[in-house]
Amino acid sequence: MFGAVRRCPATLARNLASVSTRTLRTPLAHNSSVLRIPLQAARFQNGSFAAFHNSATKWQQEAAQSIAEDGPVTEFKELATRGLVHPNLINTITNQMKLKTMTDVQTRTINEALSGVDIIAQAKTGTGKTLGFLIPVIQRIIANDPQLGERARGYKRAKPDDIRAIIISPTRELAEQIAVEAKKVTSGTSIITQCAVGGTQKRAMLMKTQREGCHLMIATPGRLFDILSDPYSGVKAPKLSALVMDEADRLMDDGFQKEIEEIKNFLPDPAEVERQNLMFSATIPKEVVGLVRATMRPGFHFAKCVDENEEPTHQRIPQRYVNLNGFENIMPTLYDFVLQAQAKAQAGETRPFKAILYFNSTAEVTLAASVFYKLSGGFKRNTPLSNLRCYEIHAKLTQQQRTRAADDFRAAKSGILFSSDVTARGMDFPEVTHVLQIGLPRERDSYIHRLGRTGRAGKEGEGWIFLTPFEKNEMRRRLNGLPLQDGTHMLETATVDMTQAGEMPENVASILSQVVEAHKKVYPDQLDAAFRGLFGSFQWYGDKHGLLEGANRLAEFGWGMPSPPPPPASLFSGGGGRRGGGGRSGGFGGGRSGGFGGGRGGGGGGFGGDRGGDRGGFGGGRSGGFGGDRGGERGGERGGFGGDRRSGGGFGGDRRGGGGGFGGDRRGGGGGFGGDRGGDRRGGGGFGGDRPRRQFDN
């Protein structure tokens, strides 16, 4: 897998450089390829920008001929005063977005791209590269149609077949993040931006585009191909003047090469309609070199914005591991960690605490977020976490819910984001001080990508990973060579035996008591799902019986359950006959309070057996799946963890129609988990209505 921190071999870089006739490797102070418009041409006060730019070709020629004598442009405001970029764009960037000085990546790319040449830039995420391609692309649109540079008075409808520029991103989260930035930059113009991504309704997106029109399309490859290849969509790009591929290495890594080639078939012939191509990539593997050869025009520039001597994030950021006594220690130790970090931040000893907590299954994300909501006291004030807002992002939320949570967390000064791996690559959340990984990630690259959410833009950060006894040996193999230090001694709750309540220190007993009580207040369905999700995260682990015993301790001593939920039916072939005659006699059914089925409405019924009394067996009869017939009971209870919980930006949102946060619109009664999917979820449809229940929630 091509990771964001992988460095391309020198031979590949030389290969790419040999394809290009101009390669930018000189230091900024000596870079002569900087653009400058003659001063007499930059007097916008005495004439309209439209009159100055008669055509994009003329503008680019003048820009290319105006090589700066005093060094590159490094201030955004200077782009306007020197006539390089429309002042409406720069006014928005400097006055509304409060940006003044360009980053290294922006300086190296904007100056070159404004001349109209093709560029391949090697740049990492979190370096400001989004503006590095948005500014020249938007300026190119304006240069071709100067009227678009001014804010139209009244309503002026654009056309859906008038796309001037396309930006392709590998994931919907990244595409939506770019779209938000693009709409900010163009807010003072008449340029219409649309975003087309998977996970959203194609019809709704098409109706919006047909109604509003589109000049700038930001899309994921699959959805873009779907729209352009649909003869009835009405979405076309006959005047396309710019094509951008962001995270090109990831586009190739995720297998989008075929889609990209097919997309090109629906774009105008570059020989007939001049098109600028911009490509940004953290690494330059051979697949990207091939894409460059197939896309770029002769004479393209290679802007290397990665310092060969810069230490990678996963080598630079302090990292610690915490060895836990068992699964039951996870949440008490997390709570302990957050309390300590929040106390230091409130005392002014550290920056405001802003953390991302990564879990290996969606169900674990959901449960942890619910527990921390309960620990925060809900709407109560004066609790240790009452001022710390919490957010939640994972694949089973609707796109609207995920976007709302990401935007809110991005804007927050402090808070906790509970997340699955959907935010681990390319997502930029400023000022993140800590990344906590709960359990061993499936791959080494996942660990590195998660860690990369902190320590960005020159800021400091910390990485922590919490490991159970089942993961210690595997950690040495998967994370070998990383600068991990033992931090177990810093958290007393990590090593305490939670099964021995009488032998705990007072402060640990208090933390455990709070955590257990919080688990008792969440819905049993969440506990059941997290219990099963745990086994999905440990499919690689060989000793299933030992794993089951550890999970049972978690349910009993960590969650305070009278008996553990049923594990997945596939955990053992034959139902665990190895223990058939002893200890927990009867495989999964005997032992503690009737095994997994006992004590819940029928006694000792194996995987659910006679649980029909109050729970309807292992999924049957729970009218409404996840949310079931809990209807309005949860209506406004959980509109976020702190602050204004009615905004829908946090955990609960307005569950009667807001669509924000965790539950979205649950109007349909028994709509269960899935946002505005409400309605008929009869017969144990689990998370997604009448869909079949999956074994593991990964």
TrEMBL record:
Gene3D superfamilies: P-loop containing nucleotide triphosphate hydrolases. Keywords: ATP-binding, Helicase, Hydrolase, Nucleotide-binding, RNA-binding. SUPFAM superfamilies: P-loop containing nucleoside triphosphate hydrolases (SSF52540). Its EC number is 3.6.4.13. Pfam families: DEAD (PF00270), Helicase_C (PF00271). Residues 110-302 form the Helicase ATP-binding domain. RNA helicase. This is ATP-dependent RNA helicase. It comes from Alternaria panax.
